[in-house]
Each structure stands twice: as C-alpha cells, then as structure tokens.
Amino acid sequence: MRLNQNILLLGKKVVLVPYTSEHVPRYHEWMKSEELQCLTASEPLTLEQEYAMQHSWREDADKCTFIVLDAVKWQAEAGTSEESCMVGDVNLFLTDLGDPSLGEIEVMIAEPSYRGRGLGTEAVLMMMSYGVTKLGLTKFEAKIGQGNEPSIRMFQKLHFEQVAVNSVFQEVTLRLTMSEPERQWLLEQTSHMEEKPYRDGCSEPR
Q1: What DSSP state is assigned to residue 169?
Q2: Which keywords does this Swiss-Prot/TrEMBL entry list (predicted)?
Q3: Is the CB of residue 187 less than 8 Å from the CB of residue 2?
Q4: Which of 78-82, 83-87, 142-146 shows the lowest mean pLDDT across its residues?
Q5: How far is the C-alpha of 1 from the C-alpha of 136, rounded, in Å?
Q6: Residues 155 and 175 sit within 8 Å (Cβ to Cβ)
Q7: For residue range 178-197, what is the model confidence (pLDDT) as tens digits?
Q8: Which pLDDT belongs to residue 41?
Q9: How many Å apart are CA 140 and CA 123, to the nearest integer?
C-alpha cells in the first residue's frame, strides 16, 4: 500500500516500518521455517518470488504491511540496520469489496525469542489504530489456525470474539466491531504511538 510507504509508527516495544526490499532477505529466511509456514498457511517462495511479492504488496491498494522491529534495539544505537532489528510483520487486508470498513488483520512474530513478550499485542493495537484513524476501518477480523492457541488468546484479550470455525481449513475467525467505547479504548491503548516520516531504509532512531 503506497499510503504507508513514507511513515513509521513508533511504540514502546515495537517500531512499525513499511516493508521494503531491504527487509526481503531476512523475511525470506523466516519463511523457510515449516512452523511459520504452518502458522501462516504459507507456501515457501524463492527469493525472487519474495521480492516480487514485496513489490506487489507495496503497490496493492488493498494490503497494508508493516515490518515489526524491536524498538529497544532500534533506538539503542544510531545506524543500527533495520534488518538486524526485525522480529516479524503485521498486515491489514482490505479485501471485502462489499464492505470497505472491514480489515482482516494478522501478525507474525517470527523470532522465537521475542514471542510471549507483548510485541505482537502492541503491533496489533498500533495497526488497528492506524486502520481506524487513517483507513476508516470500523471492523476487524482475524483468521487463525485452530492450533495456534497463543494467537487466539491474544486477540481475545484485545476484545475480539469468535464468530466462525472452518473445519476444512482448520481455522477460527474472530471479529471486533469498533463501537465508540471500543474506539476510545483503542486510542487510549495507543496514545503513546508516534507517527514519524520514513525514507526507504533510512529511518533514524530518535
């Protein structure tokens, strides 16, 4: 999505930056993992295919992708490469042509040592806040593999409710509708978030 290609979102634990070609090699290494392929229902791609996918996602108006960086590591030393700070990604898919206010959200914390530490939670909250304030979204869905209990619990803690189970694809669908109280709660949870300008691979810790 071109809308987010020139901004980064700074939180307490994570920094969200646009997915650029600089990030592809590390992302490609992640997706060689059979565990991540299973959790994300993904097929392994060649490096060339991964670069093509990155370019496609950047251009597609219905996909908003941020790479999740470790904020502490990123801010610790000027000049630290983004690739060395990468821990995962977070995505919004605006694919329901009949309802442009609905976004499907997904998050992946690819680095095992960073799981269970709240980075995924903050990344999702920040992405939802961006979706509400910049993209006009009022409803979110998350489709998660039935066996991915940590992810299901995380979304339930963020007020998502299970609305469907697909036994064929072995996934559950959770949904959150942004009533005014939910919107206010979300904005309070992300009141610390800062939006800063971004240039490909040239974001500087501040």
Answers
A1: T
A2: Acyltransferase, Transferase
A3: no
A4: 78-82
A5: 15
A6: no
A7: 999 999 999 999 999 999 99
A8: 62
A9: 14
Q: How far apart are the C-alpha atoms of 33 and 109, rounded to whole Å? A: 13
User: How far is Cα 40 from Cα 35, in angstroms, rounded to an integer?
Assistant: 9
Q: In the beta sheet, which residues pair with residue 9?
A: 16, 195
- Long-range pairs, 126-129, Cβ under 8 A, ≥24: 126/9, 126/11, 126/14, 126/16, 126/90, 126/190, 126/193, 127/16, 127/64, 127/66, 127/90, 127/91, 127/92, 128/158, 128/186, 128/190, 129/186, 129/187, 129/189, 129/190, 129/193
In the block, residue with structure tokens 């646009």: 18
Higher pLDDT, 51 or 98: 98
Q: Which two tokens stand for residue 178?
A: 């942004």
Judged against a pLDDT cut of 60, whether residue 204 lies above it is answered with: no
pTM listed for this prediction: 0.89
Q: Which of 21-30, 107-116, 138-147, 158-167 has the lowest mean pLDDT?
A: 21-30
Q: Is 118 left (phi over 0), alpha (psi -120 to 50) or beta?
A: left
